[in-house]
Amino acid sequence: MYDTGRIHATPARNENRADRFALWRVRNVCFRSPVCRQLWYHEPMHTAGSVREPYTENKAGQWLLGLLAREDVFTALILNAEEVCEAAPEVIAAIGFDQCNPHHPYDVWVHTAHCVAYAAPVPILRLTLLMHDLGKPETFYRTEDEVGHFNRHEKKGEEIVRCRLAALGFDNETVETVALLTRRHDKGITETELPRWLEELGRERLKLLLDVKEADARAHDEKYKKIQLARVAALRRRLAGL
């Protein structure tokens, strides 16, 4: 069972927490400028449709949902990183975590913030994207060519999701949906396999999964993004005919 009280970081990223956030503020001070905020404006993609909104009576959980609902959500996540870590300590390890991969121009936390901002303002979708890569720091390794990889990070992410969202008092349906989407977000889907995925997940959750994949792809390098967005578009066309 995943321990929600632990803060995971690789040995190379065990900086003092106060120094970590001090550095983060300096690196991102430009986001307080209205001009720079416009430079990072994201055009959210279309939503999959109406879904049941996440519910919690936990104040930290409610604050997190409010933050995710903001129009300037990318800037909000960057400037409120320390507060986000208070609600979800697993985020600490993601901040400044270099992915050491040519397809990833951002560290795990900035990649996450971009993903959330590219998503439509649907609570369950943005909550999933906030959580989807939190398993990366604990599963990181390098190959002989020094390229970073994350072995089964989606499975570790699912464990984090289940424990953290439960700790934040979210309803069972929200926990199960976010856990499912996190576990499946990095799984390849072919057009031939789509009917099986539709039967297994249902149309609503499958559309959400494609939304997650699209937002995730947009926060990668241009080459990877172009390939993945084309695949998602093809899957959407196929799904429309099923």
Overall geometry:
globular
- Radius of gyration equals 17 Å
N- and C-termini, Cα separation: 39 Å
Mean pLDDT: 85
Low-confidence stretches: 1-15, 29-39
Helical content, roughly? 55-70%
Let me know the largest β-sheet.
2 strands, antiparallel
Strand content: under 5%
Total number of helices: 14
Strand order of the largest sheet: 1-2
Structural class: mainly alpha
H/E series = HHHHHHHHHEEHHHHH
Strand runs, count: 2
Could you say how many structural domains there are in total?
Answer: 1
In a nutshell, what does this entry contain?
This protein is mainly alpha-helical. Helices cover 58% and strands 2% of the residues.
Care to describe what's here?
- The radius of gyration is 17 Å and the shape is globular.
- Strands 1-2 form a two-stranded antiparallel ribbon.
- The N and C termini lie far apart (39 Å).
- The chain has one domain (11-183).
- Mean pLDDT is 85; it is low at 1-15 and 29-39.
- It has helices spanning 17-27, 34-39, 59-68, 73-79, 81-87, 91-94, 108-118, 123-131, 136-139, 153-167, 172-184, 194-201, 203-218, 222-240, and strands at residues 140-142, 148-150.
- The longest helix has 19 residues, at 222-240.
- The protein has 242 residues and is mainly alpha-helical.
- Helix 10 runs antiparallel to helix 11 (172-184), helix 12 packs across helix 13 and helix 13 (203-218) packs antiparallel against helix 14.
